[in-house]
Amino acid sequence: MNILSDVAAVRESLRGEKNIAFVPTMGNLHEGHLALIKQAKQLSDCVVVSIFVNRLQFLPHEDFDRYPRTLEEDCRALSALNVKTVFTPDEKILFPTPQEFLLALPPVADILEGKFRLGFFRGVATIVLKLFNIIQPDLAIFGKKDYQQLHIVREMVRQLNLPVSIVSGETVRTPGGLALSSRNQYLNDTQRAEACRLYQTLQQIRQEIVSGCQDFQTLQENAIHNLAQHGWKVDYISIHERRSLLPARPPDQDLVTLAAAWLGNTRLIDNLEI
Fold first, then answer.
1. 120 burial class (0-12, 13-18, 19+ CB within 10 angstroms)?
2. What is the pTM of this model?
3. Count of domains for the chain
4. How many CA atoms lie within 13 A of 152 on its CB side?
5. Cα–Cα distance measured from residue 60 to residue 21, given in angstroms and rounded to the nearest whole number
6. Catalytic residues, which ones?
7. Short-list 159, 107, 167, CA closest to 137
8. What secondary structure, in 3-state letters, does 103-146 show?
9. Residues 186 and 164 placed together within one structural domain of the fold
10. Has residue 176 been placed in a domain?
């Protein structure tokens, strides 16, 4: 396994490779990440994983400095999966000068996560585009857990005519339904048990819609109220049309419910397709 931190070195290492599969991460790898990497290995013999905590996608008050960094453990896990190349640049490599060129994103980046984390998707899109330019993959895999991110990356690739196929990976969950996330380690034992309620709430919304309910506004309000009754601070629970990610209106089909809520000092996101 090649562990490389220099742009020129990783480009030289991949020169002549065919069908490169790329999995971008911020490290602190868990089974959700590893599932994406295993999926990549089924699609290509040349899998590249990047590990980089991207400052551009953190707001000033967020957890950039304390975000878990576990490079040695991550590399051991990747070696066990026979990953070909791991790209581990530091900030001076990817940002030798201040990043003044930033993408202007469409309105869909200003709703849901974009409403509560201003500039987040601009930071995501910028680093993904930089990594695509460095790795030049044929395909890249993003998890459905970050549903809006997946949508925006797909649109960026489509509208900028990038020669990359975007593949989605299913969300990996604990037996109780909690979506795996590096930030889950901020939860104590009591909070971790309660955290499963977020997915249960999404399941309840799905069941109501499948049973014929089309009063999306009431479903959203009831879900927010239910979580608040159990100590959550909800940023949003919102039902959207999958293809456009616009707010759903009856009789829209192919829906997804997206949620973000705080449990103590930990912010959790999740979603469920309907």
1. buried
2. 0.95
3. 2
4. 26
5. 33
6. 33
7. 167
8. CCCCHHHHCCHHHHCCCHHHHHHHHHHHHHHHHCCCEEEEECCC
9. no
10. no
- CA-CA distance, 25 to 33, in Å (whole number)? 8
Residue 87: both structure tokens together: 């790209």
Structure tokens at 120: 């987040």
Specify the pairing of strand 255-263 against strand 233-241. antiparallel
Q: Which domain holds residue 225?
A: 182-273
Q: Please check whether residues 213 and 250 belong to one and the same domain.
A: yes
Are residues 148 and 234 part of one domain? no
Question: pLDDT tens, position by position, for the chain (274 residues)?
Answer: 999 999 999 999 999 999 999 999 999 999 999 999 999 999 999 999 999 999 999 988 898 998 989 999 999 999 999 999 999 999 999 999 999 998 899 999 999 999 999 999 999 999 999 999 999 999 999 999 999 999 999 999 999 999 999 999 999 999 999 999 999 999 999 999 999 999 999 999 999 999 999 999 999 999 999 999 999 999 999 999 999 999 999 888 899 999 999 999 999 999 999 9
Q: Any idea which residue has 């009789």 for tokens?
A: 251
Domain assignment present for residue 177? The answer is: no
Instruction: At 32, list the tokens.
Output: 């959700």
